[in-house]
Amino acid sequence: MGEAAVELVRPEQRSLEAPLKMQGQMAFPPRLALFAEEAGIVASIFAKPGQNVRKGDSLLLLRNAALEAELLGARIRYEEARKDSAVLAARMSKAEAERTLLKKQFDRIARKYGRVASVTLEKYDEAETAYLKARADYEMTRAELLHADEALQLARQNLELLEAR
């Protein structure tokens, strides 16, 4: 028997100079499995059987009662936080006005007390106590408002996260 020459070549991609004629079949999977990140009930279907779709196209709308309830709760908490913040802002304005008024009254009485004996020590102490109470109320309301604003910000972020889902 004679020896045949064998030439080893490295495979590479290149264009064919002549078309290839072949027989065969192409098979596609009959179904494609889909999954949703959240459980729910199909409310609407946007794609028709056989329709070409692209990545990111909405195929259907799911209703998720638990997620909708959570979103509604977040909206309610956001509105409550917004109202609390508004109420505290109004209280703060009132406390600031009261503090300013009592400070003026106290300063006036203090000036009189230093000059004239007509202002009693008791009246001076009452004015000072009223002013100090108003100042403490103002500071407390200010702290509550800061806390309410933080709660409002947190509720807003939570709502935005849920709406994005």
Description of the structure:
This protein has a domain at 65-164. It is elongated, with a radius of gyration of 39 Å. It has 165 residues and is mainly alpha-helical. Strands 1-2 form a two-stranded antiparallel sheet. Helix 1 runs antiparallel to helix 2 (121-164). It has helices at 65-115, 121-164, and strands at 41-45, 60-63.
Outline of the structure:
The protein has helices at residues 65-115, 121-164; strands at residues 41-45, 60-63. By secondary structure, it is mostly helical.
Give keywords:
165 residues, mainly alpha, two-stranded antiparallel sheet, 2 strands, 58% helix, elongated
The radius of gyration over CA amounts to: 39 Å
Oligomer: single chain
Q: Name the overall outline.
A: elongated
- SS-derived structural category: mainly alpha
Task: Give the H and E element order.
Answer: EEHH
Characterize the largest beta sheet: strand count, sense, and whether it forms a barrel. Answer: 2 strands, antiparallel
Number of continuous helical runs: 2
Distance between the termini: 75 Å
Mean pLDDT: 82
Strand content: 5-15%
Number of strands: 2
Name the helicity range: 55-70%
- Poorly predicted ranges: none
Give the strand line-up of the largest sheet.
1-2
Reconstruct the topology from this structure:
Elements: E1 41-45, E2 60-63, H1 65-115, H2 121-164
Antiparallel strand pairs: 1-2
